[in-house]
Structures are given as structure tokens and as C-alpha cells.
Amino acid sequence: MPEIADETIAGGRLTVDLDAIAANWRAMNSRTVASGSRAGATVKADAYGCGVTAVAKRLTQEGCGTFFVALPEEGRKVREVAPNAEIYVLNGLFPGAAPFFAEARLRPVLGSIAEIEEWALFCRARRVALEAAIHVDTGMNRLGLTAEDTAKVASDNTMLDAFKLSLVISHLVNGGAPEDPINGRQLEKFKALSGQFPDAQKSLSNSAGCMMGREFHFNVARPGIALYGGQVMDEGPNELEPVVKVEAKVIQVRTVHKGDTVGYGAARTAKRESRIAVISSGYADGFHRLGSGTDTRPGTHVWFNGHDLPVFGRISMDMQAIDVTDVPAGQLRRGDYVEIIGPHVPALVHARAAETIDYEYLTGLSKRYARHYASLKEPVA
Ligand SMILES: *Cc1c(COP(=O)(O)O)cnc(C)c1O
Fold it and tell me: How many A from CA of 141 to the centre of ligand 1?
């Protein structure tokens, strides 16, 4: 095989700025440290698409000692680069998975009586009180013990004596909207439920919770989206550093005449003589089809050299067309890159057009693009 750079044969390139992730983590940590708490880091789903190994390694250097993942295998990857960290697995203990947890020194976040019993049984059989967290439900109704189950566990020493309860957590339903009264109700319920385990540390806040009052911070916070530069609060500016830049390669530039249609379903008609760039980015690269620009929906846009360029027609699996008529002829050519997510086009722009959230764009970042870890800061002249 001839030596050809990854970038030459990939449809695009993806740049992740680890310094920016570290800066965003420090921003979250200093908010929580101010209230006597500390920030862990949520690195589930391959660190929201940014690469769990690189991110956990960098945040460990930064002083982060507690990581939250969704799955045991994600925890094992963190363990490889963070030998001394506390690693909590949010999706809890899957049946029969306890030996894997013990081997990689992972702590399950036990979310039901059945999980607690299985962990207790495992610890008794091994004659070692391994650490675990308990999740108490305060309104999400997804995972976690009910109030009745919490009282039962708190008063039943046969379960609690078998393992070491290191943390009690719950999860905010609508932290992005601090005015929603559900936040206060969850806070009160969390105090009541977690208070039944006086010796354990407590954790309630995701990124949004870090932005709320100190009473939400408890012992350790679990920011995720903030670290990756996403939108934390539903409203208001995003003051975090951008972390991800995704650029797609221009495959070709072509002219379409007034009245011609572009793409599947003939969903978009040219209203003028137009120049169209076809780029190597489609829904298989995480670019949701709902962001398509059709005759009835404006759709999303990408960016090149100072221009916002609308998506023209339906996004297909491996490519999409963008309207480059307003870019001076000759400026954008075959092989050039357009920014599809980055400092000029936050994922939130696409998410709003596609009626979803930027989390989904980040976790769906293309596995087909050439990846780099590098700074996104423009060099200062
Ligand atoms: C994903 C998740 C987080 C992180 O949430 P962000 O909104 O990304 O900060 C924290 N806690 C739990 C239980 C989660 O599932």
C-alpha cells in the first residue's frame, strides 16, 4: 500500500481540543469548589464523541479524580489511563457483570433493590466490601430507588454491611431550566432520601446543576456536556470554550439552473442559477436528515470563510449539497474543507433545525473522519 495521509482518504477531519476540555472542566470545578464540593467528569459515550481515553487521561492530569461512565466497558477504558480514579458506572450492575466490575475496580451505581442484592451477594461471596453507589429516584422515574425502597435499604443492614456505600446520587430532570419548580422539589427529595445514608458522599448535579446554587453541589458534581463545550442552560449565551471542530471535504462544485431540483425526493428547487458544493458528510456521519433544507423547511447551514452556507435539498447517507452561490467563484474548490461543526457553527445550530439537542450531534460524531487532537484557538498575530 502506498503511504497516504489519513486525511487524504477520509471524507472529513475531526479536531478535538483537549486544552479546551481541560479549561471547561476547571470552570466547572471552580464553581463547585467554591461551595466546598468538587467536580468529577462524565465521560460516557466515548466522552460525548471526543475520545474517552484521551479525555480521561487529560482530565486526570488536570486533577480530576472521579469519572462517570454509562457502561462497564467504558469504565475499563478509563481505568487504563486513570489507575487511581474512582469510576462510577451509571447504568448500574447488569446481571452477572459483578466480576468485571471487581476486576477493573469499577463502582456500579446500583439503581434497584435487585442490583443491590446482587452486589451484596457478590461481595459476601468474595469476602470483600467493594465500593458502590446507590441511585435514589427524585422524579426522573428512569433509574433509582423509590422512597419506599430507599427506606427499606437504609434500615436493612444485611444489604448495606456487605459492601461499602461510597456515594448516593440522583439526577436532575430539567436542570437547564432553573426556574422550573421541579428542581427545588428534587433537591428537597434528594436531601430526605440521601440523608438516610449519613456516611456516604452525595451527588446531584450534572452540568446544569453546577450552574445552579451551591445547595445543588453536595460532595461531587457530574458535569458532562459542559466539558465538551455544549449548551448547558436552555436559554442564554454559552460561555464555555468550543471543543470540537468537524470539517467535511468538498467532493465537487457544480451549477444547477433555476427550476432544477437537488437530491432525493426533489425536495429543493433552485430559485436562481446556483452553485452547489457536494460535501462528504451525511446522516451516516451523524448529520441528522431533519436538518435538510427543502422547499418547505429552511434547514441548517455550514460555514466557509465567513459565509453561512445553507444545506440545499435532502441530506443523504454519505453526502449533502450546500448552496455556495454567494461565495465568490474560485474561492471554494474540490478538496477544500467546510466547517460543519465548530466555533462558527455550534452543534446547537443543527440540533435546533433537527429538533434535537447538541448532545446527539456530539455523541454521533463521525467515526469515518480523520481524527486529530489539537488546539482550536486561532493563533494570535
Ligand atoms: C449524562 C449524565 C450526566 C451528565 O449530564 P450533562 O447534562 O451532560 O452534564 C450526569 N449524571 C447522570 C446520571 C447522567 O446520566
Answer: 15
